[in-house]
Write a structure and sequence with these properties.
Elements lengths: L1 H23 L8 H10 L4 E3 L10 E7 L3 E7 L3 H19 L3 E5 L6 E8 L2 E8 L2 E8 L3 H10 L3
Antiparallel strand pairs: 1-2, 2-3, 3-7, 4-5, 5-6, 6-7
């Protein structure tokens, strides 16, 4: 009887561990473009829809910036693979431009999600990939915490 209870407990714990591992690998849904726009506008940041300028490449392109502080670029691409390619293109470009004077922190990157951040004495960059969306943030270092607060409001 004691062995049966121990086996049941072991099986339940194993099942819980497998379920938690499966949940870790699953990407959350990207922020809907309208919600990105709404959050930025609530913060008093002007959002410009640039989709018509880039419609051959992207389904949605929003640019929200305060020239003295930061810029947030939000892209929705045609599919996850295209978004993954774009994420890697942007992060490679950022590294080539800034890496020598900065610290790079890169979270796990898969074909459907990625989180890259780079900070230096003068700047902060973050690139987030979730499914078919890529959010690209550039800021002066003095505004890093404000950017992090905005990203937190967006659920990142």
């Amino acid at each position: 009887m004691k062995k049966t209870v121990q086996r049941c407990v072991a099986m339940v714990l194993t099942l819980l561990m497998l379920l938690s591992l499966a949940a870790c690998g699953k990407a959350k849904d990207p922020l809907p473009p309208e919600e990105f726009k709404s959050i930025m506008e609530e913060l008093g940041i002007t959002v410009v829809d640039q989709t018509s300028l880039h419609s051959e490449k992207y389904q949605t392109v929003y640019l929200a910036c305060d020239e003295d502080k930061y810029a947030f670029e939000y892209y929705i691409l045609k599919d996850t693979d295209t978004a993954s390619d774009f994420y890697h293109f942007v992060t490679d470009k950022v590294e080539k431009q800034f890496k020598k004077d900065s610290t790079v922190v890169m979270a796990n990157s898969t074909s459907y999600k990625g989180d890259y951040s780079l900070s230096g004495d003068e700047y902060y960059v973050r690139v987030i990939h979730t499914k078919d969306a890529v959010l690209y943030v550039r800021a002066y270092a003095a505004n890093k915490d404000e950017c992090k607060n905005i990203l937190n409001k967006m659920g990142y």
